[in-house]
Write a structure and sequence with these properties.
Blueprint lengths: L3 H4 L2 H18 L9 E11 L2 E11 L5 E7 L7 E6 L3 E7 L5 E5 L5 E5 L6 E9 L4 E8 L4 E12 L10
Antiparallel strand pairs: 1-2, 1-10, 2-3, 3-4, 4-5, 5-8, 6-7, 8-9, 9-10
Length: 168
C-alpha cells in the first residue's frame, strides 16, 4: 500500500515542473530549418564546345554556414555544402562522389563494365558568389584539377516570405 501522505508533497512539484517544461516548449515556435538567405541563380554552363542553360536555387544558413541546393540542373537537389562568407563573396565546394564503374549495354543487352571512363571524371564544382553584384562564377574540375567546364550565373536574393508555399 502506498502512503499518500509521504508522496503528497512531491506531486505539486512534479506538476509544476511538467507545466513549466510544456509551457517552454509551446512558447518556442517549431521551425525545422532556419535559412537567412535564398538565392535564385540563372545563367550558363560552358563545357566542351557548347553552352547550356543553368539554374541553381540555394538556401543558406547563418548559424552553421551550410548551403542547401533546393533546385538545380547543375548540382544534385538536396545536397548540402559548407560555405565560407567573406566581405566580398560566398565560396563553396561540391565534391562529387567518384565513380569507378560504369555499366554500358552491348548489342545483345548484356552489361559491359568500364573502369573510370573519361565521361565520368567530374570530381568537384567550385562556386563563388559576389556579395555585391550577385554574380556566380564556378568551375567544374576533374581529379587532376583540370577544368572540365565553367559556370556563369546571376543570382537574385529573396526571403522566406517570398518563397512559394508548399502545396502538399
Amino acid at each position: 500500500m502506498i502512503d499518500a501522505r509521504r508522496h503528497a508533497g512531491r506531486r505539486p512539484a512534479l506538476a509544476r515542473l511538467l507545466a513549466v517544461a510544456l509551457f517552454g516548449l509551446a512558447a518556442v515556435p517549431a521551425q525545422a530549418q532556419m535559412f537567412h538567405l535564398y538565392l535564385n541563380c540563372k545563367g550558363k554552363v560552358a563545357a566542351g564546345k557548347g553552352t547550356f542553360d543553368a539554374q541553381l536555387d540555394l538556401a543558406m544558413r547563418d548559424n552553421n554556414q551550410t548551403a542547401l541546393v533546393q533546385g538545380s540542373n547543375v548540382l544534385p537537389v538536396g545536397e548540402r555544402m559548407r560555405y565560407v562568407p567573406t566581405q566580398q563573396a560566398y565560396t563553396m565546394t561540391f565534391s562529387a562522389p567518384l565513380r569507378t564503374v560504369v555499366a554500358y549495354r552491348s548489342w545483345w543487352g548484356g552489361p559491359i563494365f568500364t573502369w573510370y571512363p573519361p565521361l565520368t571524371k567530374l570530381a568537384q564544382v567550385r562556386l563563388a558568389i559576389d556579395r555585391q553584384t550577385g554574380q556566380l562564377t564556378g568551375q567544374m574540375l576533374n581529379v587532376e584539377q583540370d577544368v572540365l567546364g565553367t559556370l556563369a550565373m546571376q543570382c537574385t536574393p529573396s526571403r522566406d516570405e517570398d518563397q512559394p508555399q508548399p502545396r502538399f
